[in-house]
Amino acid sequence: MSGAKPSVLVVDDKENMLKLFARILGDAYAVTTAPDGVQALALVSARTFDVVVTDIQMPGADGFTVLREVKRRAPDTEVVLVTAYASIPKAVEAIKDGAYDYLSKPFDPDEVALVVARALERQRQRRDAQGLAARVARMPDFHGLRGTSTALQKTHALLAQVAARDLTVVLTGETGTGKELAARALHRESPRRDKPFVAVNCGALPAELVESELFGHAKGAFTGATGAKAGLFEEAHGGTLFLDEVGDLPLPVQVKLNRALQEKEIRRVGTTTPVTVDVRVVAATHRDLAQEVAQGRFREDLYYRLGGVTVRMPALRERREDIPLLAMHFLAGANRPELEGFTPPSLQALTAAPWPGNVRQLQNAVARAVAVAAGPRITPEDLPPELTVARASATQGPLPAEALAKQPYREAVDRVRDAVSRDYLTALMQEFSGNVTHAAERAGMERESLHRLLKRYGVRTEDFKRGD
């Protein structure tokens, strides 16, 4: 561990026990001793220790008194009780009052070192979780689009810039990247914010009803049309109409949509009377519309009519630094207050996963982990199996050529590059025990550049540092 050694206070009224603990722990930790509980209380009132190891049976102030005072003054300090066999039930009860663990006499020196090391690890994890929770609390929230990554912040800025301009906007990106949240953000940032926001998933509408849903119909226009009905364009009058998966619209409806955008009027099915509408259209698609046009599945005139501004929503794998923050955000919204957070391996698994379903998949993965976790932290075993399998395969190197050939070219190249990069960074950190300065010199790059790569690929320097 770099920097100052962790501080350990050992309290016992027997001098030989103090010497024994100092001998066991002195190489790895800065050990302070106190011959009784009274002097221990004076020490903890003057400074904070990382771990306190205290005997229970002592004159003056016993170990339980020391425990209570330590937890009152420094809740983050871990306390380990030392007890004779007869006092074990009381020591176990003290764990409910905040003690980390207990050692029963006689104990093995290796057991002492292990318990103290585990206490420090628990403290580190709790501090990491507290730091992560603080970062979550400060995480920018642009109308539900959350994250600190450069990719997302650029998207936020572009959305805010175009919101005030009454232009048609096309939101592109993979499923689950937050396109509807972006559409709602555009509406709330626009002068139309006080008017309706109407959303429709074009791909979910039956082909025979799409035109009626968008433009409305007159009474008797078709079988089942027992009365006149306004369409979504009329419902959104003055506001914003969000056409999700616009690439799934049938070609005949695309013709009428293009005319509605051009003329700013619609005609209900079964009537020739035009109805003027004042609507800002925001469309979204996971398809490549230019390719759809080239293959005759999307009208070129509508493509250019919609393309006032195109905003691409970044995939989650393009902003991996946001994954721990989002995971903690979703955890905080779950009804499991006893869950403190994620273990480091589980956060590593989340950060390294490919996330084809993006933020939506991450939210579902956290919900699943919350449901099955025994606590107090979510472990890799609590995560969906496909995430840990994907992480394991990623760390084992690239796929064989015949397997890569079954993937799209870009995905195959990314898979190879990511696997090689992660393996290289892991080996580099292992060689230099997590020392970024020395590793950067070996890699021939600036220290800051190496830090960015480590963060991108979820390689934690703390995992490779050795004790002093």
From TrEMBL:
Q: Where are the transmembrane segments?
A: none
* Record-annotated Response regulatory domain positions: 7-120
Q: Which residues carry the post-translational modification 4-aspartylphosphate, per the record?
A: 55
GO terms, molecular function: ATP binding; sequence-specific DNA binding
Gene3D superfamilies from the UniProt entry? 1.10.8.60, 3.40.50.2300, Homeodomain-like, P-loop containing nucleotide triphosphate hydrolases
Originating species: Corallococcus exiguus
Residues covered by the Sigma-54 factor interaction domain: 145-371
UniProt name for this protein: Response regulator
| The keyword Transcription regulation appears for this protein | yes
Q: Give the UniProt record's GO annotations in the biological process aspect.
A: phosphorelay signal transduction system; regulation of DNA-templated transcription
Q: Which PROSITE patterns match?
A: RESPONSE_REGULATORY (PS50110), SIGMA54_INTERACT_2 (PS00676), SIGMA54_INTERACT_3 (PS00688), SIGMA54_INTERACT_4 (PS50045)
Q: Which UniProt keywords apply?
A: ATP-binding, DNA-binding, Nucleotide-binding, Phosphoprotein, Transcription, Transcription regulation, Two-component regulatory system
